[in-house]
Design brief:
Blueprint (H helix, E strand, L loop, with lengths): L38 H6 L9 H10 L21 H8 L7 E4 L5 E5 L22 E6 L4 E5 L5 E12 L11 E3 L7 E8 L2 E11 L6 E7 L4 E13 L6
Parallel strand pairs: 1-4
Antiparallel strand pairs: 1-2, 3-4, 5-8, 5-10, 6-7, 6-9, 7-8, 9-10
Length: 245
């Protein structure tokens, strides 16, 4: 499934360094997960499936009589029995099932929850709070065992802050043509990046909902070959019109 590089496999620059691009088959692209690859590792790696689509890969495997030609695509984390994530978390973080408060974006207690394990950022169903408009989970405070909910607008993130950056290119050269992804299957978001001593501040030029600390933010730039991976970092904080998470 690791369809990674773009039209050319690890196209080499004049300085001898390889570059990584999104795969031709975007539904199978893995570049989001590989942003933390070092330049030394990338120079060594090859991803020969990057310029073909998954159905072509399966056909080649079938022609070669490989027993994986029709193997189902991976869907879940392999070490989670029957896809029951809650059972795994309960074993290692039982405090995630403690009863706690549900708050609105102004800090008012408006209900109770039966464990933060039952909630994710952007969730709408299962909140069990009556209101005149749809409510969403906009933040989860694990230290206080609190779930904060608000309207859809409260999910719109304006800025995100990153740490532990990894660079595969000089980011300052691409700020006028820079896009980010905050989910592996998410869209490319036009953004501006300001580097600092502790990481980076990313200003989103387009609206994106429900970005959470802990997610990766990967930088891309579009050129004549495709979407080049510039590097990325880990989200430690987000900002919107209502609160910081």
């Amino acid at each position: 499934d690791a369809l990674v590089t773009g039209h050319y496999v690890n196209r080499v620059q004049k300085n001898g360094n390889a570059e990584m691009y999104r795969a031709k088959d975007l539904s199978r692209d893995q570049s989001y997960f590989l942003f933390n690859t070092t330049q030394e590792q990338l120079n060594f790696l090859r991803f020969p499936l990057g310029k073909i689509e998954k159905n072509e890969t399966r056909k080649i495997a079938a022609d070669l009589n490989l027993n994986v030609a029709n193997k189902p695509d991976s869907q879940d984390i392999c070490f989670v029995p029957n896809g029951n994530y809650a059972s795994v978390i309960k074993k290692y973080r039982p405090e995630s099932f403690k009863i706690g408060n549900i708050l609105d974006t102004k800090g008012n207690i408006i209900g109770k929850h039966e464990g933060i394990i039952n909630f994710t950022i952007g969730q709408r169903k299962g909140i069990k709070i009556a209101h005149t408009e749809p409510l969403y989970v906009v933040n989860i405070n694990a230290k206080k065992n609190e779930v904060i909910i608000g309207n859809r607008e409260a999910l719109a993130i304006k800025k995100i802050y990153l740490k532990n950056l990894n660079f595969l290119s000089d980011l300052t050269k691409y700020n006028d043509n820079l896009f980010i992804k905050v989910r592996s299957t998410g869209r490319m978001i036009k953004s501006k990046v300001k580097l600092n001593d502790n990481g980076a501040e990313v200003s989103l030029q387009d609206i994106e909902l429900g970005i959470s600390p802990g997610q990766a933010c990967v930088f891309y730039s579009k050129d004549q070959i495709g979407d080049k991976v510039l590097g990325g970092g880990w989200i430690v904080k987000t900002e919107n019109n209502y609160l910081s998470t």
